């Protein structure tokens, strides 16, 4: 064990013992280091469990990253080793050619609009999220760093001529800068804008003289601006006195106006066409009571496409730009769609499709013809029989105040009663959708557990009012939604109310801890992955660049009234109520939820005599992205479930 880890662990234990008084119980726990993993109380995985998991752990996915500039092939992100890397596919169902090779995951690819074989990507080190921007050129097989190698860089927006790339850099405290670099002279990179808060570059104008900037304040409040690159003048697009939540924004391919998504005047995000000269705007999706997610335009401006999120499942719409009439779309399997992009040379629309019973793959179809759906990749599922995979059922249950909470349930075959794993998403402005999870399928088919995936209040996808329902002093209302779910479980004859565990990561980790505090007697255990144990210490210690963003959601710990509320609800201050087994999992390089959040709740639970397992990874950040670490975590979680279900 390294000296700094020893100091942190010891300090956390002393804090917990001091906080909980002389009656606290110190535990002598053996700490084992295995490669980059640190383990406490985690048993060895029997060969039978490791073998049963092996096929599920070797499923893959292939996320569509975009078309090459010549329109002949596509780029995908997939994993054939330890980490996800970028591959090229020259035609549908052709062999994949791996292009990037690195120990660290390659975070997506943005292809050049004009030069075949070029794309930009981002990469960090050990999960620290200090990303740098790189240019890959297939003609040389080499990557060139475009950013300066310091701090955190995100994004990678191309100019229309394929000569410049814009990205966001984190500066001092909450300040962000927008940087533009010429790919032939990255050393001449220039910071063209600075501002407090979170800013990103959304799209270059056709002539390259203007740049759309996106300003994020909170999930309910964002703005879009136009930056004149010659004068440096910034003007707000669609100014309003009321908070508006925007999604993407683009210049129209045929000029004259913009497209953007926003929730202005609606519970849901709609797609708008906006005239920057007159300020006039047209809601293109009025009447669709669901969020519009991604959208894209064809290069010639003839078509635009968008995706609607209907209670978690996706539907693609394609329309003619001249009259906004729908164009025929081929039958697409039910699932979740992302990454919409038109080919630069033809009106071919590409995207990723993920279904509950099959992993993500890349697809496309030609617009304006009777062309059928083309499948570019068929990702492996470890040799498993996909007919045995379980499709989740959508349902709603009533919470404490009469609110209907949307959720999905995956059920094993048979009559039950089945043990239950409640998997709570992070965010909190996230959404659980019916996507493929080999982990869920293993829990259902091999452990015989039902998996319930709720979208508690505060989740996205169900209207902006629903998103606001857990803000500030309403934080515990979302935890009460878990209590109501436990009531619902108790009423189901095929579910075992005495064998329920909660599982979640990040904000979902906080929900696990809070549920363990409030409903300890109704739970068999919990798995907290990179979770918040104290909003006060979390907000004080999270990375500078995101602190104000989180205060906008959770509340400001510097405000005495808010701080007192946090003191009351923080799991760390209520750890004595957690007496059921708890498994804490943490990446030690996490800039979002620092490892100190895991250290202090681990020490506090043990100081009260509670049973706590621990797994830390020295080469991970906010979640485990390396296959070896993920496999070890999955095995350990299975062992934990077996432990609590069999007690």
Describe this entry's structure for a reader.
There is one protein chain. With 647 residues, this protein is an alpha+beta fold. The chain has two domains: 3-57 and 383-646, 3-Layer(aba) Sandwich (Rossmann fold); 241-379, TolB, C-terminal domain (Neuraminidase, 6 Propeller). Strands 1-2-37-36-35-34-32-33-31-30 form a ten-stranded mixed sheet, sandwiched between helices. The chain has a four-stranded antiparallel sheet with strand order 3-4-5-6, with no helix packed on it. Strands 7-8-9-10 form a four-stranded antiparallel sheet, with no helix packed on it. A hairpin with a 6-residue loop joins β21 (270-274) and β22 (281-283). It is globular, with a radius of gyration of 25 Å. The chain starts with a helix and ends with a helix.
Mind sketching the topology for me?
Layout lengths: L2 H18 L10 E4 L2 E4 L6 H11 L5 E5 L6 E6 L4 E6 L6 E3 L8 E5 L6 E6 L8 E6 L4 E4 L7 E6 L5 E7 L4 E8 L2 E12 L1 E7 L5 E9 L2 E8 L5 E4 L8 E6 L6 E5 L7 E5 L6 E3 L7 E7 L5 E8 L2 E8 L15 E7 L5 E8 L2 E9 L7 E2 L17 E6 L5 E7 L7 E7 L13 H8 L4 E5 L9 H4 L7 H16 L4 E11 L1 H12 L6 E5 L5 H7 L2 H11 L5 H10 L12 E6 L7 H13 L4 E6 L9 H20 L1
Parallel strand pairs: 32-33, 32-34, 34-35, 35-36, 36-37
Antiparallel strand pairs: 1-2, 2-37, 3-4, 4-5, 5-6, 7-8, 8-9, 9-10, 11-12, 12-13, 13-14, 15-16, 16-17, 17-18, 19-20, 20-21, 21-22, 23-24, 24-25, 26-27, 27-28, 28-29, 30-31, 31-33
Helix pairs in contact: 1-10, 2-11, 5-6, 7-8
